[in-house]
Amino acid sequence: MSSPARLSQRLPRSFYARVQSDVRRHLGEEGLDAIVCEDWRDVAYLTGFFHTPTERPVLVVVTADRTIGLVPALEYEYAQQQDIAVDELVAYPEYPGVRTPQEVLADALSGASGRWGHAWTLSTGDLGLLRAAMGGVEWVGTHLVDRMRLVKYDEEVVLHREAARLGDVMLAAGRELVEERVADGGPLPSEAELAKHVIGRGTAWMYDTHDNVVVVPLLAGGLVYSGPNSAYPHGLVTEHRLQPGETFILSLGGAVGGRYAESERTFVLGEPSDQQRALFETDARAQHVGTEAIRPGATCADVNAGCLDVIRDAGYAEHIRHRQGHGIGLNFHEPPWLEDGDDTELAAGMVVSSEPGIYVLGHAGYRISDTVLVTPDGRERLTTYPRDLASSIIPA
Questions:
Q1: Which residue numbers delimit the Peptidase M24 domain (predicted)?
Q2: How far does Cα 168 stand from its chain's mean position?
Q3: The domain boundary residue, chosen from 149, 165, 185
Q4: How many CA atoms lie within 13 A of 192 on its CB side?
Q5: Which residues in 230-285 belong to E strands, given as ranges?
Q6: Please, what is the Cα angle at 344 between 367 and 321, to 5 degrees?
Q7: Angstrom distances, CA of residue 375 to CA of 52, 217, 293, 350
Q8: What Cα–Cα distance (Å) separates residue 242 from each residue in 148, 180, 193?
């Protein structure tokens, strides 16, 4: 019997050739001759080179006819080992260097001129060095690559789908540990123990089922908090030990091939009180309404308003602490934002979270989150772990 096929997390050079071709098309539409990107996620998006950002800049330049990568010498072989998708790879000796990295890049570009775009993430200091090194270039800030990253290519959707599986695997592992401790009759796990357990299980699952694992920040991780601690939406993990009668939140996720997903659930240890039941079911209803509103053409602001109105109408407006959700891609949090201030129209191929929350200080927090793909005719929840109250009760 053959073993199941393993997914390679590395995308082929043909994928990056298509991305760069689309960049060139957009350059023409914006009247630009080239674009420069420095953020490590943009570098990975354009070339497939994943690296740990430091003070040493890594730059990618896409012109009308070629793509150039600039890396510090100590990264040169590593970039080659990753098969960085560039036409020319340029290395500078060290940072800050007798000559700046930007001057080394200017030499490779031999008399660059024209109207060049730069990502808004480029630091003002590095932009100043580029201006000094390339006096013939007019520099213009552009969101060209940001806009491209909003809508995922099919190959990226495959990776997001796998990342969603990772989140669900970690949720199952967390619940399993709590149930085992309840059955043993000993102390329940602390938040820290639970976090360590789910991260270990998620990471093991990834290496067991994937090849060429791309290691990025928060490869597998998230937030674990229980009881009153869960009323702080981004509270840090503590040594607090879970207690019967409490709720606890597993806010988990990670990245496959550098593409993220999150899967969050609220659990109740023991028979829910009337307060717990009312808060949980209100949040679940808001999450359902908000998720069902995700479709092409809907604005982020309108989707968010309809979602949070469910919580307001139930009388819990004062316990809202954040928007419905956010975009997910090469970062856990990125545009678009499902929030009142973002009028972006959703489009097929976008990936967003749907995660309304209710937070009652001194009591607990309630949040249910799915990673959602916008489809041509609606939406698809990529995370599938049960989210109803009956499935979220752990007898204690």
A1: 160-376
A2: 16
A3: 149
A4: 3
A5: 247-256, 259-269
A6: 25
A7: 33, 28, 12, 8
A8: 43, 13, 10
Q: Please give the span between the terminal C-alpha atoms of the chain, in angstroms, as a whole number.
A: 41
| Together in a domain, 105 and 201 | no
Distance CA 169, CA 190 (A): 20
CA distance 382 to 164: 6
Residues 344 and 235 in one domain: yes
E strand or H helix that includes residue 78: helix 73-81
Cα→Cα distances 328→179, 181, 336, Å: 31, 34, 8
Number of domains the chain is built from:
2
Angle CA(318)–CA(355)–CA(258) in degrees, nearest 5? 140
Under a CB-based contact definition with an 8 Å cutoff, are residues 393 and 244 in contact?
no
The one-letter code for the residue type at 326 is H
What per-residue confidence (pLDDT) applies to 233? Answer: 94
pLDDT for res 4: 62
**For 97-147, what is each residue's pLDDT tens digit?**
999 999 999 999 988 999 999 999 999 999 999 999 999 999 999 999 999
41-64 mean pLDDT: 97
145 and 249 together in one domain: no
pTM across the whole model: 0.96
Q: Write the CATH number for 203.
A: 3.90.230.10
Average confidence (pLDDT) over 81-97? 97
Quote the domain boundaries for residue 15: 7-149
